[in-house]
Design a protein that fits this description.
The chain is α+β, with helices and mostly antiparallel strands and 344 residues long. It has three domains: 4-55 and 98-187, no CATH class; 57-96, no CATH class; 190-343, Trna Endonuclease, Chain: A, domain 1. 36% of the residues lie in helices and 22% in strands. It is built from nine helices and 14 strands. It has helices at 4-14, 34-52, 74-79, 100-113, 120-130, 158-169, 189-207, 270-284, 328-343, and strands at 57-65, 71-72, 88-96, 174-177, 180-183, 217-218, 233-234, 237-241, 244-251, 257-260, 265-268, 290-298, 308-312, 315-322. It has a five-stranded mixed β-sheet with strand order 8-9-12-14-13, sandwiched between helices. A three-stranded antiparallel β-sheet has the order 1-3-2. Strands 4-5 form a two-stranded antiparallel ribbon. It starts with a helix and ends with a helix.
């Protein structure tokens, strides 16, 4: 479980742009649904983007006009008898606001406007900004090619907005029931895991710069043929301080313990332990200092809450939980304790 307001704080760390002026009053609001929170963020974000200027793209147009522009389509002009009217069918490019990015923004906004979980206040805010999208088309959500979106200096401010759109469209379940769009209250585990991971990384980058937090690649300590076929090892978070390294592997599951049905017992997830141990041992082979590991679970409502420390083959490994369903000050306290323990 995650408090709705904590989703905002996690997004604020993951996307630093949420710390800009204009989003501040969101923290003072109470949200019952994630979709309502996203609607608030999106309306404010689009407002800021309108002030900066909406993204434009050169789009192909074909039109019969009096003055030749671009490339004249002779065959179409003759076939449609436009020449006798002193007109030409021309193919030309025009810089328009009907860009792919703006289409995604409008499509997402319209989904939220049809969602019962979005408040009247935030629906009105979305309707207001959509007045600037009259020339922008909607597209089918399932047809969006997220991987085709490329960011550069001129459209970088869209990155946070489109990530919010991605969470809404892809990370939340949408079904049609009696003609009304329903959006589930919680983002699915896969997308929450990515947000959880990014949040922890950016938290340490911001508040503990001396730890040089990064999502570091780990080389294999291996010799032999076909090394190129080995899977890439990349940590969620790697903290470095003096002669010490802490590899943090974040996990967001519905259950933090695995069940052995044969013996009716619960154990830590074996794959998670194997993974962190592999990271540690391979990192250790290229680092002269001390390497330790931490598996950090998002807390669930299970009775057993993982909180254990081990020394395995000489390496310190911890399994901890982070309670995301509490006041955010408690979350920061837990993260600070991890950092301070590592430093000391």
């Amino acid at each position: 479980m995650v408090r709705i307001k904590n989703i905002y704080y996690m997004l604020a760390y993951a996307f630093q742009i949420l710390n800009e002026e204009g989003y501040n009053n969101i923290t003072s609001e109470d949200f019952d649904y994630a979709s309502d929170l996203f609607a608030a963020i999106l309306s404010k974000g689009i407002t800021n983007q309108i002030k900066r200027g909406l993204n434009k793209e050169y789009l192909e147009r074909t039109e019969a006009i009096n003055r030749p522009v671009g490339k004249i389509n002779i065959s179409a002009s003759i076939k449609q008898n436009f020449i006798t009217k002193k007109q030409f069918v021309c193919d030309y490019d025009e810089l328009l606001e009907n860009s792919y990015m703006n289409k995604i923004l409008k499509t997402t906004a319209m989904l939220l406007l049809r969602c019962q979980e979005v408040s009247i206040k935030n629906k009105n805010a979305l309707k207001k900004v959509m007045l600037y999208f009259n020339e922008v088309d909607e597209i089918k959500p399932e047809m969006i090619q997220w991987s085709s979106i490329k960011y550069h200096r001129n459209n970088s401010t869209y990155k946070m907005l489109l990530n919010i759109c991605y969470l809404i469209i892809e990370g939340m379940l949408m079904t049609e029931q009696n003609g009304t769009l329903k959006i589930s209250r919680f983002i699915d585990n896969q997308h929450m895991h990515r947000l959880f991971e990014k949040f922890v990384l950016e938290y340490y980058r911001r508040h503990y710069p001396e730890l040089n937090a990064s999502a570091a690649h780990i080389d294999w300590d291996v010799n032999g043929r076909h090394i190129e076929y080995l899977p890439v090892m990349k940590s969620d978070i790697t903290l470095r301080y003096k002669n010490k390294i802490l590899i943090i592997d974040t996990k967001y599951y519905s259950k933090t313990m695995q069940t052995n049905s044969l013996f009716d017992s619960k154990t830590f997830h074996s794959n998670n332990l194997y993974q962190i141990f592999t990271y540690i041992k391979n990192m250790e082979s290229f680092f002269a200092g001390k390497v330790s590991g931490l598996i950090l679970y998002a807390k669930t409502d299970e009775e057993i809450v993982p909180d254990s420390d081990f020394i395995i083959c000489g390496n310190y490994i911890s399994i901890k939980t982070l309670d995301l369903n509490t006041d955010f000050s408690n979350i920061t306290r837990q993260l600070n304790t991890i950092a301070e323990s590592f430093i000391n």
